[in-house]
Amino acid sequence: MLKIVEVGPRDGLQNETASVPTAVKVAFVDALSETGVHEIEVSAFVSPRKVPQLGDAGDVFRRLTRQNGVVYSALVPNAEGFDRALAAGVDKIAIFTAVSETFNRKNINTSLAGSLRRFEPLLKRAQQVGLPVRGYVSTAFWCAFEGRIRPEAAIDVTLRLVDMGVDEVSLSDTIGRAAPPEVARLLDGLLPKLPADRIAVHFHDTYGRGVANVLQSWDYGIRIFDASVGGLGGCPFAPGATGNVATEAVVVALASRGAAVGIDPANLTPALQILEPYLKPAQRRMPPGGSRACEVCEFFDGGDGCSGKAAAG
Ligand code: HMG
Ligand code: MG
Questions:
Q1: 246 in ligand 1 pocket by Cβ < 6 Å?
Q2: Nearest residue CA, atom 13 of ligand 1?
Q3: Alpha-carbon distance 15 to 242, whole Å?
Q4: DSSP state, 238?
Q5: Within a 10 A sphere around the Cβ of 222, how many other Cβ atoms?
Q6: Does residue 274 form part of some domain?
Q7: Residue 213 sits in which domain range?
Q8: Of 54, 156, 193, 312, which residue has the fewest beta carbons closer than 10 angstroms?
């Protein structure tokens, strides 16, 4: 079963500077509901001081028009967020932590261990009320502050979340720097320990490798893909990260592998057009070195972890 998780309303809007009126967000989510995407991450019940763009999460949930078969989920960081999410009627929650301690401190104001302690009671409560739980493993490949992340460390965090009762884990390339061989290495290590149907992938597209990483994951049997219409997205606490891999691109790429996606990319455009007047002009720029490929090792940058010489690409 293939599942596209549209994260534009959450990952996309959290990174926009303009304040988007609640009614426009509701119209955006409603339009996405008509496109055939399987799940929509509608918003985040996080601190409105930290992420003011999503301070109206409850109102968006209460006002959206649900379509049968679409799951409406939200990020939940702690007990307060859980209460707010439950009151708003979410179908599913997503807790989130990272492999990198520095990113965790900046993003969620605690350590990895501290975040797991926070999640424990949430998972119990979610089980009691029958709410499915996704767990994000951010910085699963690279961290903006700590550089390359060892696959063993990402696997360890993933399995700790699973042991705690998370239903599905989303392996996240927070800063969009992973290359397909890194995706392969992580999945090589993880798949013997966790079945593919419990693994989602969440690629940001900073270095233009999002689609290649999606296809690499597909070839490994992964069938849950996070994506954002128009390639919106980015984490305000991860400097340099640009948007998620675009839903339109993911749909076309998966169809090229023969997948029955059930989404016409042309139908995604009207949803994006609803937001268009509020979006800042696209400022995508390849980071320095991003277009260089290494002749010797599989890494692209000639930087950390690259054993060869970067060749001009
Ligand atoms: P904290 O430890 O309580 O401390 O919050 P804090 O200083 O960060 O925030 C404290 C303030 O937030 C207090 O209010 C609390 O009442 C309030 P103040 O006294 O300052 O007015 N507060 C809340 N308010 C409403 N709802 C809540 C809530 N919790 C605290 N649930 C916390 C820790 C994690 C909540 C906070 O740091 C936070 O909200 N951080 C933002 C995290 C975030 O949204 N990051 C972006 C999403 S993650 C991401 O993008 C990665 C992902 O896409 C995958 C990937 O790409 O890697 C998922
Ligand atoms: Mg993200």
A1: no
A2: 47
A3: 9
A4: S
A5: 20
A6: yes
A7: 3-288
A8: 312
310 touches 294 (CB < 8 A)? yes
Evaluate whether residue 107 is within a structural domain: yes
pLDDT tens for the chain, residues 1 to 313: 899 999 999 999 999 888 899 999 999 999 999 999 999 999 999 999 999 999 999 999 999 999 999 999 999 999 999 999 999 999 999 999 999 999 999 999 999 999 999 999 999 999 999 999 999 999 999 999 999 999 999 999 999 999 999 999 999 999 999 999 999 999 999 999 999 999 999 999 999 999 999 999 999 999 999 999 999 999 999 998 899 999 999 999 999 999 999 999 999 999 999 999 998 776 556 665 554 555 555 555 555 556 665 543 3
Domains: count for the chain: 1
- The Å distance, Cα 296 to ligand 2 centre, comes to 30
Residue with tokens 């390359």: 148
Ligand 1 pocket test target in 10, 14, 50 with most atoms within 8 Å of CB: 50
**What residues are annotated to the active site?**
235
Judge if the beta carbon of residue 237 lies within 6 A of ligand 1. Answer: yes
